[in-house]
């Protein structure tokens, strides 16, 4: 084919086809889509690039779509069409309908396109299909039961003791600045790797708590929108040799290092288990089972037990358990330090219940403390969890929302930002006020507990599988650290904790150096 034919016939034809395709798609999405009747910005209904713009580039760093959704709700009402194939609802009373009605006859799925954003498409967190998710989750759920976790508190205590010892010996009374985010990230990842894999990463031993692994999670979050939209990026990263990727994309290198190290860990654990399974049971492992013991002993079919899938689960657990726990602890301590009355009340309760500061009470005992519980709930409320909406698809049934019928197969999402900042449920929603959680408070109907509106851990069949572990970490760490130590904020203000960028997890303003303190005691 000559260049002339290419230029005069083929290219114009391709161009014309593309125009016809885009035009037809626009007409379909505007007038014939099953959700064409729902209100919202026309451009958002026509093209996914609307969301991409807010996620990737708006205000230079992206992470702005949540506030665009809020603007749409203010203009169009409680249900809006936010993309060509997704609705968003802002109505706290509808949360349970969207997230909690999963059953064998009403399977609820996640969107297929979201499964690749963290590079772990077969981990439970990413599994779109409701039935497959249920069987994968069942294999791990027992490991995170409250009863089993209670027997693990000693190992959590040891790690908290290590952190507390370092605060006393390396920071107290000196001019050194302690980055609470780094410290709690190290602690959180050590707890997960110790409890789940019996291979503690010992990040809490890193000088200045600057463990390379800790920077990794933030990097993963910063690229999560890009991963979701440009799946080929992840495919290239997986396909190219590690050293090539590291040279081309230095930002991604720590993520690759984490993957390599987890793969190695999983390989070693599996080979240890295989070896020891030949010996008597008492020689298998030393003290406690790993998550792999549970998964391998489950009813999952063999193809679900592949090295690759187990590695993905391990990677997902390590990442999911770091940023979330850290940001809740940082949120709690920041507000206690910023509001002396809150700190004084909490310290009084802790001094009363922990008369000898160098002991660590049991999680069961700590959970009975009303003000500590209130501080944790309020930290979870303003921490928002994984704040991005996690849409659900009811494959077989329509949903009824007020006068609207939502057709089967439609992605419907809600999020904890809209829930937790709703002034009818949480008056003065941006104020950190633990008192709102005291004396068994109720929601707006005067019947349902206020905690029903605390959705930081999600809800229903895909509620955070490690919620009890997270609570144990929060109760034991905050009680120990605040009972023993005295901190002063250092060059830190509200803008270092206030949610400004949505990168799946809530992030403060770009350029924030995090919450830093000096230690008096
Ligand atoms: C304060 C701490 C935490 C918060 C706020 C949090 C929040 C959440 C939320 C909102 C979900 C549901 C996501 C969805 O609906 O799509 C979730 C799921 C999940 N979380 Fe957490 N999480 C926390 C701690 C942890 C920890 C410590 C681990 C690991 C040890 C963990 C592992 C997971 C996993 C594996 C899932 C997927 C569950 C499933 O799909 O069935 N999380 N988490």
UniProtKB/TrEMBL annotation:
Lineage: superkingdom: Eukaryota
Requisite cofactors: heme
Cytoplasm is among the record's keywords: no
SUPFAM superfamilies, alphabetized: Cytochrome P450
InterPro entries hit by this protein: Cyt_P450, Cyt_P450_CS, Cyt_P450_E_grp-I, Cyt_P450_sf, Cytochrome_P450_monoxygenase
Keyword Heme: yes
Keywords: Heme, Iron, Metal-binding, Monooxygenase, Oxidoreductase
Ligand binding (heme): 464
One MF annotation (Gene Ontology) recorded for this entry: oxidoreductase activity, acting on paired donors, with incorporation or reduction of molecular oxygen
UniProt xrefs under Gene3D superfamilies: Cytochrome P450 (1.10.630.10)
PROSITE patterns, sorted: CYTOCHROME_P450
Family: Belongs to the cytochrome P450 family.
Protein name, per record: Cytochrome protein
Organism name: Lentithecium fluviatile CBS 122367
């Amino acid at each position: 084919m000559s260049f002339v034919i290419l230029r005069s016939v083929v290219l114009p034809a391709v161009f014309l086809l593309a125009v016809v395709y885009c035009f037809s798609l626009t007409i379909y999405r505007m007038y014939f889509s099953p959700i064409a009747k729902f209100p919202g910005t026309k451009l958002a209904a026509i093209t996914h690039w609307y969301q991409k713009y807010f996620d990737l580039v708006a205000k230079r760093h992206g992470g702005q779509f949540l506030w665009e959704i809020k603007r749409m709700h203010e203009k169009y009402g409680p249900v809006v069409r936010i993309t060509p194939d997704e609705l968003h609802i802002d109505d706290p009373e509808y949360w349970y309908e969207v997230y909690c009605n999963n059953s064998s006859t009403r399977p609820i799925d996640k969107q297929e396109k979201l499964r690749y954003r963290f590079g772990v498409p077969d981990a439970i967190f990413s599994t779109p299909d409701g039935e497959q998710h249920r069987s994968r989750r069942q294999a791990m759920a027992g490991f995170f039961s409250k009863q089993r976790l209670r027997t693990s508190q000693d190992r959590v205590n040891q790690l908290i003791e290590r952190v507390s010892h370092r605060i006393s010996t390396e920071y107290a009374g000196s001019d050194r600045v302690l980055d609470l985010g780094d410290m709690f990230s190290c602690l959180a990842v050590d707890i997960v790797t110790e409890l789940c894999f019996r291979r503690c990463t010992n990040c809490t031993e890193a000088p200045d708590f600057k463990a390379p692994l800790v920077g990794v999670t933030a990097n993963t979050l910063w690229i999560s929108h890009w991963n979701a939209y440009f799946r080929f990026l992840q495919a290239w990263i997986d396909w190219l040799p590690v050293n090539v990727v590291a040279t081309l994309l230095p930002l991604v290198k720590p993520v690759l290092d984490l993957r390599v190290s987890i793969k190695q860990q999983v390989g070693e654990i599996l080979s240890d288990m295989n070896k020891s399974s030949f010996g008597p049971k008492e020689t298998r492992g030393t003290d406690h089972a790993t998550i792999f013991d549970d998964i391998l002993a489950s009813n999952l079919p063999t193809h679900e037990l592949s090295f690759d899938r187990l590695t993905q689960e391990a990677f997902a657990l390590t990442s999911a358990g770091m940023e979330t726990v850290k940001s809740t602890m940082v949120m709690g301590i920041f507000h206690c330090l910023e509001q002396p009355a809150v700190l004084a009340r909490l310290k009084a309760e802790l001094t009363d219940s922990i008369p000898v500061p160098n002991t660590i009470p049991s999680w069961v005992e700590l959970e009975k403390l009303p003000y500590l519980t209130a501080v944790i709930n309020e930290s979870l409320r303003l921490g928002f969890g994984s704040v991005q909406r996690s849409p659900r698809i009811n494959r077989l049934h329509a949903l009824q929302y007020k006068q609207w019928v939502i057709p089967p197969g439609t992605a419907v999402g809600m999020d904890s930002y809209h829930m937790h900042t709703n002034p009818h449920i949480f008056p003065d929603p941006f104020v950190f006020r633990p008192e709102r959680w005291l004396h068994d408070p109720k929601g707006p109907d005067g019947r349902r507990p206020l905690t029903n509106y605390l959705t930081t851990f999600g809800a229903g069949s895909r509620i955070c599988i490690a919620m009890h572990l997270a609570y144990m970490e929060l109760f034991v760490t905050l009680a120990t650290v605040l009972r023993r130590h005295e901190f002063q904020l250092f060059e830190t203000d509200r803008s270092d904790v206030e949610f400004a960028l949505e990168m799946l997890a809530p992030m403060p303003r770009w350029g924030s150096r995090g919450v830093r303190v000096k230690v008096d005691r």
